[in-house]
Amino acid sequence: MVELGQIVEKVRSKNAGPFWLTIDVFCGNSDVFARVAALPTGRVAALFGVAEAAMKRFDIADLNVVKFSVPRPVVQGTRADRDMHGAAWGCLLAEMPLD
Length: 99
Prior knowledge:
Layout: H1 4-7, E1 10-15, E2 20-26, H2 30-37, H3 41-48, E3 56-60, E4 65-71, H4 89-94
């Protein structure tokens, strides 16, 4: 079974303010974009441990990019924040197996 990160150009995560993280999936071409766009939002929400209703999703066909925004589990920069820049979250999505 192939992982998401094996078929896309890049998966990147970063801060989207002190309360949100954003994960960008750069697909590279329209065929890969179509495959990634078919990924159910609920499956991605479950991976990150958030309710599907709390997640934001943007499918940007002109750029072949799928973007997910999720609420941070803790406020950025607080004592409990283990990833202040939000850079590690993309690895989880890159390792997600695709059907």
